[in-house]
Every structure is written in structure tokens, then in C-alpha cells.
Design a protein that fits this description.
- This protein has 95 residues and is of the alpha+beta class.
- It has one domain: Winged helix-like DNA-binding domain superfamily/Winged helix DNA-binding domain (Arc Repressor Mutant, subunit A, Orthogonal Bundle).
- The chain has 4 helices and 5 strands; from the N terminus they run E-E-H-E-H-H-E-E-H.
- Helix 1 packs across helix 3 (56-67) and helix 1 crosses helix 4.
- The N and C termini lie close together (7 Å).
């Protein structure tokens, strides 16, 4: 199985497939992809996800996706990395 992202410090595999993500984190990743913009404003993403942009669970999911190398966060905006785009694709398990 191909590795999509590795730890920049130790090289350990972080994500090999969609099965490596919690269902809600995967749903959020796919929602970012469905919004079809190069990057998405944090508040718009939270609203589309039915969450509060200041909510702890929403922020933890984004932080987890960033740590796994699937999204970038910059100035209140979120964008998919190449690995994130692969997993966010329709009916893609990343395998």
C-alpha cells in the first residue's frame, strides 16, 4: 500500500488510506474538496460542516488533518494538499 504522507521529522507513515482517518475527519476533508475553491475560509467551512469556527472539535479535526499533511492552514483559510486532494476525491479510499 502506498503512503500518502510521512512525518517530516521521523519519516513514519502518517496516512496510507482513508481508513487511517476518523469518519468525521474524513467527512470534513471531503467537504473541503467539495467546496471547489483553491482555499476555503474557515468560517464558511465551519458553517458548511454545521460547526462553530471557534468550536474545539472543529479545530481539533482541522489540526489533525494538518498534522497528517492533508491540509494547509493560513490566515483563516484552509486548502487541501496533494495527498488531501487524493483522499477527498469522490469514492476514493486512497488505496
Amino acid at each position: 500500500m502506498a503512503t500518502l504522507t510521512n512525518c517530516p521529522h521521523c519519516g513514519k507513515s502518517l496516512v496510507q488510506s482513508a481508513e487511517d482517518l476518523q469518519p468525521k475527519a474524513l467527512a470534513l476533508l471531503r467537504l473541503i474538496g467539495e467546496m471547489q475553491a483553491p482555499d476555503v475560509e474557515n468560517h464558511a467551512l465551519a458553517a458548511a460542516a454545521g460547526s462553530s469556527p471557534e468550536g474545539g472539535a472543529f479545530d481539533r479535526r482541522l489540526t489533525g488533518l494538518k498534522r497528517r499533511g492533508l491540509i494547509e492552514r493560513n490566515n483563516g483559510r484552509v486548502s487541501l494538499t496533494e495527498a488531501g486532494r487524493i483522499l477527498a476525491g469522490p469514492d476514493n479510499t486512497g488505496k
